[in-house]
Amino acid sequence: MQIQPILAALRRHKAGTLLIALQIALTLAIVCNALFIIHQRLSHLSEPSGVDEANLFVIENFWGVQYSTQEASSEIKADLAALRQLPAVEDAAPSNSYPLRGGGWDNFISLTPEQIKPTTDASVYISDESLIHTLGVKLIAGRDFTPDEVRDMGTRENIHPPVVIVSKAMADKLFPDGNALGKPLYSMSAEPTVIIGIVERLQREEVNTWSAPFVNQSLIWPMRQAIPIGLYYIVRAKPGQLAAAMQEAPKALYGRNRMRIIDSHDGLLSFAQVRQRAYNRDRGMAVLLGIICVVLLAITGAGIVGLTSFWVGQRRKQIGVRRALGATHRDILHYFLTENLLISLGGIAVGVLLTFGLNLWLVTRFELRVMPLAYVLSGVVILLLLGQGAVFAPALRASRVSPVEATRPV
Amino acid sequence: MFTYYLQLGLRSLRRNPMLTALMVMAIGFGVSASMITYSVFRAVSGNPIPEKSSQLFVPQVDNWGPQQNEKGEPPGALDYIDAIALMRAHQASRQTLIYPVMLSSPQPGSSSTLVSTGGYAVMSDFFPMFNVPFLYGNAWTGSDDEKRAADIVLSEEFNQRMFGGANSVGKNITLSGHDYRVVGVAKHWDPSPRFYAVWSDSAFSDSPDFYVLLNRMLDLQIDTSGRNSCRGRLEFNGWNQWLQSDCVWMMPWVELDSSSEVARYRQFLEAYAADQQHAGRFAWSPNIRLRNVMGWLEEQKVVPPESRISLAVASGFFIICLVNTIGLLLAKFMRRAAEIGVRRALGATRHEIYAQYLVEAGAVGLAGGVLGLVLTAAGMSGVGLLFEPEIAKLAHLDVSLIGLTLMVAILATIAAAFYPAWRAAQVQPAWQLKSN
User: HEC profile for A121-162?
Assistant: First the structure.
């Protein structure tokens, strides 16, 4: 295939050529970056939280009156006893928060008490000896809390329990050699707290950009949140009885003591709802960008079809002449496919630069990561295929132009 | 002439329905994607209090120091010590501290069921400072602040729920077991984003039910229901020690009516921080900020990154659609070169040809705009896919957005048609006639 005559012909259609090339360049830039963002967002969606999500739900329990620490503590114990008695309930635990809640309590963690710059940051859960069983997380080393280790925490009381259970991610971060068990850590205090247990995985309360470096790093302290405002109850239903347990639980709590508020809208959430809320933006962003990509590729493809059809229409006479001079169907078909390939390559050359430019802007503006080359390569392949596919139908029509056209006055 | 061109245009558009449909769809999709994302962006990036946004300021004092603060920035709220000291000094014409509280109230009609209600602990200046309109009664006064009275101002909506909308001024209301005296009912007022509480609360959460006297809340030891952030070693134990800690949780606002007042207040903050350094409380030189409403919203990153990214991507998408339209219009116009030649030979000026094709493009733009409007209306329900319900509900199709959609579609298409129409007007009549 001779490229020279194609280039010569393109020179006569500068505007159309430039427009197609520009469209391909812009499309490449947007599609590559969109695919990259989609992939990043979707990879969050499937991150496991480490808990038995299928059977868990949470109750947000506000107290109706300002209880003292002792009053709140005995209310919590009575509530938990009532919840555990329910036929559909496997276990229940008090807590200040739960994984994927979207915010909560986190503390800086250091290895020595003198350290000024903390080693890392931990999402803090406070609960009693029932939390690990309730969440269904796996204790891979050490032991659970004992009931006498659990203390009540009143308003703005700052207790540093002597023992702590940490997630494996946390243990590995602090003690990369894998010997975290029995070691002390310092959490914004001069008092050490000793690691007595390690759980396999326990996701943080929030999963945002800020906490991304600390993913899965969390700790559990043996404390009961006995403050006037209230607390969360995490409840694990018996397998397959989630709906029944979610119905029974608030009734049982209200039946025991009416001086509480469980919001009808947000007060009772299954873990599926929790997960859905936590990743709502990620999923939405992926869907939105996905739609834009598809529509964009369709419009670019249609645009190529439209312009090529116009060129074929314009050049019927020339095609007829070429056919009359011995060019085969295949030659004409190849001519248009090659022409498109040349334009596409030109567009892609500019598009690759645009792609990295846009990525750089997103990196500086939105703390996105730098795009791996694979995305650009797959974007290039997609656009080349799209261009060839779009040009095929008009090119086929061009190849069917009869040599007789050459003799016909236009 | 315009109507004649429009007729010609419409006839020509009917001649290539596929090409026309393609252009209309490109414009329609492009403009609707831009408009949907813009409607969210407009809602989250707007000025919540345009009449006063340049007179309201957030004073920030770095009580954490260079080793603990976030990249050199002072924290976004004050600890109790600094907050009270700034209020005592009273260097601004109006000033308030704010923190969110959550209390329980009896469910109207059933005394045995409780519901949670959210509001803000504020000072008397809060109301005149932020132009809070009143339906009944008034704000409490500065002397009530001093007296630490149990005063409360209800929102119109909360007054409707609790008192059936009647004038409740002077009545008592019991929240979380404590009695408060209603001194006023605020008319519906909910600036969005809720600039005055963005550090502690979501900027777009449900509107508050009440505003309650801050000193009274402190006396009752009612804790903040929003953010509390501490650094260093936590050595407090219990409410009173917590108040003396470096934990920040109180949001301060001051009103400064002239640039000289702003400069003076800045000096005051510097001097205050320097005093703290001399007193040995801060081991670092003064690090203060004084930002107005829009500067504050910017600093607090109120606009979700999703909103900016989606707007940027949608705008890029619209530009591609326009490039596509330029190409298609070019093809469409040049296909009629012969026709243009005849018209030019019969005396049409270049200018007239130009006008005719721009009108034709305008018709495409209008059709694209109408399609875009339909898609925008449909897409509004999809906003909830990307944003939390609180933000999604802010995006809506109003008259200005409808106007903007149509205008953007038509103007953008006409702009896209400049080059193709110019090419059409350049057609040489003699050449066209000869080759026919």
Answer: EEEEEEECCCHHHHHCCCEEEECCCCHHHCEEECCCCCCCCC
